[in-house]
């Protein structure tokens, strides 16, 4: 074991942590040890948003500048106490392909994933029961993706429009940054077919605000506008979970924000939050997501 390795006890689990000094965010000087520390400290508000949701990992073993890969199947070398759930692959057309997902329901599992350099955690808008039964979607999400030169500032203007439509339908909504370029607006699922509902909202807003909003993926239509990606409600799709790190040059976080912050956003930096800043926000305001 090197000086940058450690054996730790996490609640009633024992974990070997490795390469703690390794720079996973080289430009920012942010190490694997700091990634693990962030996920450990943010766990009280993060774990409830992971509960009962199969997790897709985005791993960066050599840091954000190195090669990365998505991982849906739980690694075979996992500790025996890591809970997994074998589910039919959402994208399977044959109906017999399965994925053995990691279920993150305790702090030790979260720390273990951080030690694997699973910087990003992505989840669907549905949960599973204790025996693996897939439930109907409980969340509705509008993923707002800006086409350059549009930024998160334009996303905020679109988010306000989405919120007004949902308000008119009697649906409360809340927002978070993506931790990357855009943001998401969420609500508790107001209809069984959340994908069709989200599509109708997106198409309506694109018609009402054609200079600002598009509802189709055609890249030729997107420069300077915001794409409302309603397809994130497809059961096969996943979205970055609140409080997950993102693999950018700095350790930015997908951060729950208030509607006042959305309305007040005038420059990109208004809504960029790093790991330390998010920990401070949670300490002072608690979990803003879903409230």
Structural write-up:
By secondary structure, this protein is an alpha+beta fold. It contains six helices and 16 strands. It has helices at residues 32-50, 107-115, 152-168, 194-208, 259-264, 275-285; strands spanning 6-10, 13-17, 23-25, 30-31, 56-59, 69-71, 84-88, 98-102, 118-123, 139-146, 173-177, 183-188, 213-214, 226-229, 239-240, 256-257. Strands 13-14-10-12-11-16 form a six-stranded mixed β-sheet. Keywords: Ligase. One of its GO terms (molecular function) is DNA ligase (ATP) activity.
For this entry, give a set of tags:
291 residues, alpha+beta, 4-stranded antiparallel beta sheet, 6 helices, 26% helix, globular
Quick summary of this structure?
The protein has 291 residues and is α+β, with helices and mostly antiparallel strands. It has helices at residues 32-50, 107-115, 152-168, 194-208, 259-264, 275-285, and strands at residues 6-10, 13-17, 23-25, 30-31, 56-59, 69-71, 84-88, 98-102, 118-123, 139-146, 173-177, 183-188, 213-214, 226-229, 239-240, 256-257.
SSE blueprint and pairings:
Layout: E1 6-10, E2 13-17, E3 23-25, E4 30-31, H1 32-50, E5 56-59, E6 69-71, E7 84-88, E8 98-102, H2 107-115, E9 118-123, E10 139-146, H3 152-168, E11 173-177, E12 183-188, H4 194-208, E13 213-214, E14 226-229, E15 239-240, E16 256-257, H5 259-264, H6 275-285
Parallel strand pairs: 13-14
Antiparallel strand pairs: 1-2, 3-4, 5-6, 5-9, 7-8, 9-15, 10-12, 10-14, 11-12, 11-16
Unreliable sequence segments: none
Estimate the mean pLDDT confidence.
95
Helix content bin: 25-40%
Q: What is the 3D shape?
A: globular
Spatial ordering of strands, largest sheet? 13-14-10-12-11-16
Q: Please state roughly what percent of the residues sit in beta strands, choosing from under 5%, 5-15%, 15-25%, 25-35%, 35-45% or over 45%.
A: 15-25%
Number of E-state strands: 16
User: What structural class do helix, strand and pairing data support?
Assistant: alpha+beta
- Computed CA radius of gyration, to the nearest angstrom: 19 Å
**Which series of helices and strands comes N to C?**
EEEEHEEEEHEEHEEHEEEEHH
Main beta-sheet annotation: 6 strands, mixed
Rounded to the nearest angstrom, the distance between the terminal CA atoms is: 45 Å
Count of individual helical segments:
6
